[in-house]
């Protein structure tokens, strides 16, 4: 016991050294290309392609509501073709990436945290280590890369579907012609609107996958621990989206 | 050779190991016995570098485990197989994929991997389960698949964490036979258990972990003849202290 009493609580130099170790671990995991590369495609399908239906579902109703809302705001005050401008700008720059990100924080973040958390509490992560694998290389890096690559693809789908849903709503419910809708859409369109949304969504993907992975790896106990880690991953993922959204608005606009 | 020198480990205020010193001779099975929560599994995890001791040293082949960087640890782990208490098979993979994973990491060709998978499964008497998932196997079969995964890497050492816990007597005997068979292939075993029948059947040396340190170690005959009351109570399974503690609480 006396031998243990000699151990001190970690001081500032030890915290700095811990951060340095994490950075080195992350760099080493990224350099371990032969481990993570074969796994990326599978995760792109599971985390990305399988998430398209939920993103499309959200985009359809966002487009419909935006068109109706724009009509309500602009009627009597501005030309109605501005409905196209509002739907396009809002879907591409904000609601497309953010609402898709929020939905995927639940689907993808929870999926990753629950899967890795279960592996942690059933000693599968330890087993990976004993077989010579770095859990960061095998579990975290391929998921983060897959989510970073696939979130912009899903968001692009959501943007296209959202604008289309707004157009169909405008033509069928608001008595706006297609020509008027696309006139409004083109009026304030800049290519930056699209890539701004896609850059944001890539950062959302990276953050959500990273939160899910790290919370999963830190899961302790049994089912309760996995549940807590999953909840925390979703909450942190949503918080990260809001913070990154503000960050990119400050940096890029 | 594996050597533990004054190994200490605490989790928060709870001291688990308090100066464990133990030599594990090559080519023999060393069994670590002790009550649940006495730190047996923590000792194994210190040996393979999954847990870093707070004090003391663990040496494997004269290398201090805690001093190894990740590459050093990977090299060390290529010499050590680990059989987990609940097998810890990857549930998203088939048995063959579980066994192949460590071999893939070491750069074996697909043909070599297929050969080793077959050989390892034959060694543990589990032919024909290659394409099954862990959920489709019984507890005993999962543990044997875990041993197959460990022996496929042809390790110098195998660490067994409670290999017979939860198994019926017949499956326990099969597991004991497997651990003896592996030892006869020249593999050094460290077996953690509180099953005394299994300990006497498989152990060339037995060490009892109690109150954070090794209370006694020796051959199975020396342990059987021990006059240490703590050792005697454990190997005879007498619950008098436990009963006294329960009576005290009441």
Task: Write a structural description.
The complex is a heterodimer of chains A (253) and B (250). Chain A has 253 residues and is mostly helical. Chain A has one domain (34-252). Helices cover 85% and strands 0% of the residues of chain A. Chain A contains ten helices and no strands. Chain A has helices at residues 2-5, 12-31, 33-48, 52-74, 82-121, 124-130, 135-172, 178-187, 191-217, 223-252. The model of chain A is unreliable at 1-8 (pLDDT under 50). Chain B is globular. Chain B is α/β, with parallel strands linked by helices and 250 residues long. Chain B has a single domain (2-218), classed as Rossmann fold, CATH 3.40.50. Chain B is built from ten helices and ten strands. In chain B, strand 4 and strand 5 (63-64) form a beta hairpin. The chains are: A mainly alpha (253), B alpha/beta (250). At the A-B interface, helix 6 of A face strand 1, strand 2, helix 2, strand 6 and helix 3 of B.
Can you name the CATH architecture of chain B?
3-Layer(aba) Sandwich
Distance between the first and last residues' Cα of chain B: 48 Å
Written as H for each helix and E for each strand, in order along the chain, the element string of chain A is HHHHHHHHHH
Return the average pLDDT of chain B rounded to an integer: 90
Could you spell the SSE succession of chain B in H and E letters? EEEHEEHEHHHEHEHEEHHH
Q: What is the residue-mean pLDDT of chain A, rounded to a whole number?
A: 89
Low confidence ranges of chain B: none
Radius of gyration of chain A, whole Å: 22 Å
Kindly give the count of domains of chain B: 1
Number of helices of chain B: 10
Radius of gyration of chain B: 19 Å
State the end-to-end distance of chain A: 59 Å
* Alpha-beta content class of chain A: mainly alpha
Strands side by side in the biggest sheet of chain B: 6-7-8-3-9-10
How many β-strand runs of chain B?
10
């Amino acid at each position: 016991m006396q031998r243990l009493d000699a151990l001190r609580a970690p001081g500032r130099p030890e915290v700095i050294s811990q951060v340095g170790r994490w950075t080195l671990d992350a760099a080493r995991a990224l350099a371990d290309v032969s481990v993570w590369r074969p796994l990326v495609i599978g995760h792109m399908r599971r985390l990305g392609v399988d998430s398209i239906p939920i993103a499309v579902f959200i985009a359809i109703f966002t487009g419909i509501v935006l068109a109706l809302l724009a009509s309500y705001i602009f009627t009597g005050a501005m030309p109605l073709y501005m409905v196209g401008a509002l739907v396009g700008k809002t879907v591409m720059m904000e609601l497309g990436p953010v609402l898709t990100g929020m939905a995927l924080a639940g689907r993808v973040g929870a999926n990753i945290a629950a899967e890795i958390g279960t592996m942690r509490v059933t000693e599968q992560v330890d087993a990976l280590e004993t077989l010579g694998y770095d859990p960061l290389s095998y579990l975290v890096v391929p998921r983060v890369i897959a989510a970073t690559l696939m979130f912009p693809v899903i968001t692009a789908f959501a943007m296209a579907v959202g604008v289309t849903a707004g157009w169909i709503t405008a033509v069928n419910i608001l008595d706006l012609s297609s020509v008027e809708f696309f006139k409004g859409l083109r009026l304030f369109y800049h290519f930056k609107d699209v890539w701004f949304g896609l850059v944001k969504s890539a950062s959302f993907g990276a953050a959500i996958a990273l939160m899910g992975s790290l919370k999963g790896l830190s899961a302790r106990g049994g089912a309760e621990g996995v549940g807590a880690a999953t909840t925390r991953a979703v909450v942190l993922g949503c918080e990260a989206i809001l913070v990154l959204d503000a960050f990119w608005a400050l940096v890029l606009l | 050779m594996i050597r533990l020198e004054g190994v200490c480990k605490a989790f928060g205020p709870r001291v688990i190991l308090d100066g464990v010193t133990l030599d594990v001779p090559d080519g023999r099975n060393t069994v670590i016995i002790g009550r649940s929560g006495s730190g047996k599994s923590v000792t194994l995890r210190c040996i393979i570098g999954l847990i870093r001791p707070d004090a003391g040293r663990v040496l494997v082949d004269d290398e201090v485990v805690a001093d190894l960087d990740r590459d050093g640890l990977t090299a060390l782990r290529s010499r050590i197989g680990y059989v987990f208490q609940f097998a810890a098979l990857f549930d998203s993979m088939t048995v063959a994929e579980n066994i192949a994973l460590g071999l893939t990491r070491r750069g074996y060709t697909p043909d070599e991997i297929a050969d080793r998978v077959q050989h390892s499964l034959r060694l543990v008497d589990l032919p024909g389960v290659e394409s099954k998932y862990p959920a489709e196997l019984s507890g005993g079969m999962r543990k044997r698949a875990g041993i197959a995964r460990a022996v496929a890497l042809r390790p110098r050492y195998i660490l067994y964490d409670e290999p017979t816990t939860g198994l019926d007597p017949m499956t326990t005997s099969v597991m004991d036979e497997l651990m003896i068979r592996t030892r006869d292939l020249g593999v050094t075993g460290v077996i953690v258990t509180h099953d005394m029948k299994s300990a006497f059947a498989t152990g060339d040396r037995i060490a009892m972990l109690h109150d954070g340190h090794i209370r006694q170690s020796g051959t199975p005959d020396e342990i059987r003849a021990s006059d240490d009351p703590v050792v005697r109570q454990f190997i005879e399974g007498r619950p008098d202290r436990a009963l006294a503690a329960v009576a005290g609480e009441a």
